[in-house]
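User: Show me a protein chain along with its predicted structure.
Assistant: Here is one chain, sequence first, then structure tokens.
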Amino acid sequence: MDIIELQTTKSFGEFSTVKDATETDTSAFTAAKKRAPWIIFLMFAGMITSGVIGQFEETLESVVVLAAFMPMLMDSGGNVGTQSLAVSVRGLALGTIDMKDLWRMMRKEFSTGFLIGLICMMLITILILLFYGNIMLGVVVGLSILVTLSISAVVGIHVHGTNSFSLSLFSFFPG
């Protein structure tokens, strides 16, 4: 049982990019040193997102209720991207995928994200129509979730997949 627990801990650490920072005997400084680069990268990615949102400031001012849906869109996109990332990490760890599979996997993940986005688009459009009585708002948010989930699925596998595949060619698996 200890071996299974150790392997599970290692797998979760690799998946969440905190490899070797999940040990209980690791100091806070060491754990922070291993985690900080990813958090800093995500912070800069968030700044890019803020810049994109800033480009739509006039639209957001005219339809303030759109801002209420931004966290849902970002969270859903992050969740879909994480699912795609998990698929690529698992496949690479098990040796069931390699570089030649990258484009096929990206097409599959885009299609998966699109189908999930389509379901979410229909659901959110109906819910917004029921709660806000505004079909146009429902369509705008619905299309936004469709595009967000479709792109996030590809980004999740592309960013991790491309880096991991490239590094795995040199027998280095970053998790």
